[in-house]
Amino acid sequence: MTAAGLPGWRHLSSGKVRDLYTPEAGSQWEGQDVLLMVATDRISAYDHVLSPGIPGKGIILTQLSLWWFEQLAAEGIGNHLVSTEVPEEVAGRGVVVRALDMVEAEAIVRGYLTGSGLAEYRETGTVTGIELPEGLTDGSALPEPLFTPSTKAEQGDHDENISFEQLQQSIGADLARRLRDAALRVYALAEAKARAAGIILADTKFEFGLDSQRALVLADEVLTPDSSRFWPAEDWAPGKAQPSFDKQFVRNWLTSDASGWDRNSDDAPPELPAHIVAATQERYLDAYRRLTGSELDHLI
């Protein structure tokens, strides 16, 4: 992965999907505690960056995150956004954000049972150690939203679900409680807005950071098809895998006979066929349209 050179910014690091830059000397942002965060069109699944990317995906994620930041700010929830004035080369997909001391944990909230939570429930009747009623199935609504944190792994490693007690040991009891309360509040607000748009927010992953005053700040992307499971409410039917507006569609293809890939092997995943790329892009766009009620002007 080669990050683009951008005027006024020095490449700092790249993750599976995002590139980070720090201000260069002499730029308008010199001396300020900010970063340029760029969402690329790369897509990852099962800890692999897949090829090819999804055209326009970075713009969809960025613009949807900006929409959510605006909705949540109206409810008093702050975020890391500083400016959308970025180099022309990354217009629409880049944002200037506050540099934060990131909390070393993923703040996951689940309102429905699926994915790794379902796998654990089938084995133990619990999700990250939280006991659940008997008789739940794939897609079941949970009695109440659950905060189910995970580790934040380095690129190439696996995030691991952990219990709240393990989170307290890792980051401290006070910060763990603050993280849980903030994540559950954001989920509740977002779940209601999504449901009004005909979308079930089954689960989502948040990232938070601490500012210079040690206040907890919502960061990274938020409530996108990359970080969330979005299901069409009209098709919700527990007991089977749900249709979705997120990258679960790509995961499903990768683990199907059609891909020919063994997830448990050391082999890299195959290239995504053109029809899977196009269908994934349309699912991401559909989520954006349903949630925001608007169209994107461009995806280039």
From TrEMBL:
Enzyme Commission number(s): 6.3.2.6
Q: Does the keyword Glycosyltransferase apply?
A: no
Q: At the top level of its lineage, which domain of life is listed? A: Bacteria
* One GO biological process term: 'de novo' IMP biosynthetic process
Q: In which pathway does it act?
A: Purine metabolism; IMP biosynthesis via de novo pathway; 5-amino-1-(5-phospho-D-ribosyl)imidazole-4-carboxamide from 5-amino-1-(5-phospho-D-ribosyl)imidazole-4-carboxylate: step 1/2
Q: Which UniProt keywords apply?
A: ATP-binding, Ligase, Nucleotide-binding, Purine biosynthesis
User: Which PROSITE patterns would you find in this protein's record?
Assistant: SAICAR_SYNTHETASE_2 (PS01058)
Catalysed reaction, written as an equation: 5-amino-1-(5-phospho-D-ribosyl)imidazole-4-carboxylate + L-aspartate + ATP = (2S)-2-[5-amino-1-(5-phospho-beta-D-ribosyl)imidazole-4-carboxamido]succinate + ADP + phosphate + 2 H(+)
Locate the coiled-coil region(s) and give their ranges: none
Boundaries of every SAICAR synthetase/ADE2 N-terminal domain copy: 12-265
MF GO annotations: ATP binding; phosphoribosylaminoimidazolesuccinocarboxamide synthase activity
List the protein's name.
Phosphoribosylaminoimidazole-succinocarboxamide synthase
